[in-house]
């Protein structure tokens, strides 16, 4: 028997180790039985005669999420519904009724106009500064019978230059505009910081009879994304609160504590609303996405909330093997390496900002690519689904997805109990 050299033994050992590492990286089969919950939703959709891509909201889960949010708010904390994340009058009405709030946060002129007509009693705060021409268009097109709704709008201002534009608008239309100033509390997406410019802006508002200072908005969605290492996240949160507190103190010195007590002190969003355990800084928080919980909101702070929104779409074709055009020769090897690529379904539509959740183990095919007509999905050997049955996805976010499917199908107690029209498409 030949004697093995140390070099041969070393190379052999390295090869074994490398082979072991490769095998450890081999994908595991994620296919399996379907979730009874989604089978129930599927039966409800079929029973309702729905056979096209549809946005489904689970009304019971939605309601539970509203109650969860309310239980996390400290005494005296107001709640403002983020309309862009929940773009449907029926959806907003249900949340308003359950939460007991009339406060909305609105992000563009078309939604502002629609909500002024359909919910004229709502207190609307702009969530981003609008170009002054968009604001002018709002007033020019607002029906006379909804004119009073404009008195309930708070306009967000981020610079002295924009304030000057809105001052001219207010003078032109003969109205008093309620002004909320955007604060930069660490996101660095614009807004005021405590200091001379902020003070001069408040004084300019106070000096103009067509403008009314209504408070501040400070948004800090960056904080949950920061690492906890070396206390970075805690430091960022403390910095945001210190900035907001300094702005409040500066405003109080200019207009007095009595005026400040009734002003808007808006903060937070879905990822951060639970940080606010008192009303020392903010007296209201905004949230919307956490009530339907897309996948981008699967965070530690939002663990108590449940996914309540899904895309359901019919299967057009269900195939027992995967064959890629021009690469048919490689199909067997690909399935042997990754069992999750063994079978194929083609669905009605696709290319949404969404992740497949049922049947389990479905994956997009990166080689075949995405399609908005008939998207390919692959699954493992236990995948079992027939044409005209439904594949379910969780949206990654709501604001960019909910407007793509027409009326929302409302699921409750095993049936589709209602449909909620969505807003016209807008950006």
Description:
This protein has two domains: 32-53 and 307-420, Beta Barrel (Lyase, Ornithine Decarboxylase, Chain A, domain 1), CATH 2.40.37; 59-289, Alpha-Beta Barrel (TIM Barrel). Strands 1, 10, 11, 12, 13, 14, 15, 16 and 17 form a nine-stranded mixed sheet that branches. Strands 2-3-4-5-6-7-8-9 form an eight-stranded parallel barrel, surrounded by five helices. The protein is 32% helix and 21% strand. It has eleven helices and 17 strands. The longest helix is centred in the middle third of the chain and has 24 residues, at 232-255. It starts with 5 loop residues before the first helix and ends in a 7-residue tail after the last strand. It has 427 residues and is of the alpha/beta class. Residues 57-292 form the Alanine racemase N-terminal domain. It comes from Hyphomonas adhaerens MHS-3. One of its GO terms (molecular function) is D-serine ammonia-lyase activity.
